Request: fold
Amino acid sequence: MGREEADRITADTPEAARKILEERGWTDLRQHTTEIHDFVKSQSEAASDPDYRPNLTPKEDLAFMKGKAPGMGSNWLKSLRESAYSILIFGAGLAWGIYRHSITAMLIFGVLLVLMVFLFPALHIWFSQTSNAFKRLHSARNWRRWDEVLQCIDKLQNAQSATKIGIGAAEIARYRALALAGLGRLDEAVKIFEDAAETAKMPAWLFHVHLATIYSTAKQYDKALEMYRVALDEATDKSIVLIDMGGFLVERFNRPDEAKQLLAQAEGLQLSELARSFLPKLRGVIAYREKDYAAMDRHMREALAGYEKQPANKYYIFEPSILGCKGYLAVSSAALGKKDAARAYFAEAGEYLSTVCLDEPVAEYHALMKV
Reply:
């Protein structure tokens, strides 16, 4: 079995990047980053102190992205091993102070030993403020708790100010715009996001994709679809727009035929591993609209299995997809006569479906359970 390696390639399209690597002799290629990732990363770096920016190898960067980088415990042990000589000296000094009954020596060496041993976890807790605030913000956004989102944004900005580690002004503006749109302040939301996107020089296609989600949050679905169509025309790498727009068409407009066309186009492109993980769910929602419950059940189970394999520390990112799959599986299970499984899935995901206004599968679940 060959060893898995990682490298960074910059190219106009994923297909061009693949060609470059293939010419260098690479095989079994998988794409892990996209233009979205690169833009968000650049904005985060601009908002953070350069001294705190880790110098990661491609392999380390990939592990971090996949949530498989060493955790606090592993890094703490590593720091202890690297500081072993100093720890031994301070420990010996403390022992000498105890032996000599020297209060001064015990205090000095004791404090130094505690600082040396517990410095890393203390710094970890301090610098984790931003990431912890962001996770709370993202979870509140998942559940459409818009007032809480605005509160979390304030906490995130306070954490960024304290730690000098941030996510970028454009991302903060996007979350604020989503919250304002959800609270009925759409014009204000659009203005805030437009100004921030222009300042950040956000790619036009990405700007219109995010604008689509803002309009969708405000239940302006026709306007959101218009933004998706603009984004599709603008994008060089169209894979993300094709998948997002396909899901939007089939869930909000019941247009499975058009969604299938977009799905077919996406399947013919070089896809990132993350984008590829969303294909089974799109196939499942299309099957739901076509009332092919057996296919729907199969695709949704495949999608759910893929999402649930993601690291636990990435759950806040995949929570909407996981709950969405379970909500649809409640419908397919009910249609296929597996009522106990349907109840279990709906108990987990029914509230989420109602929260994001997917009322049709909720109604269909209740109707099928009465049969």
Residues 266-371 form one domain. The CA atoms of residues 138 and 252 lie 23 Å apart. The mean pLDDT is 85. The two ends are 52 Å apart (CA to CA).
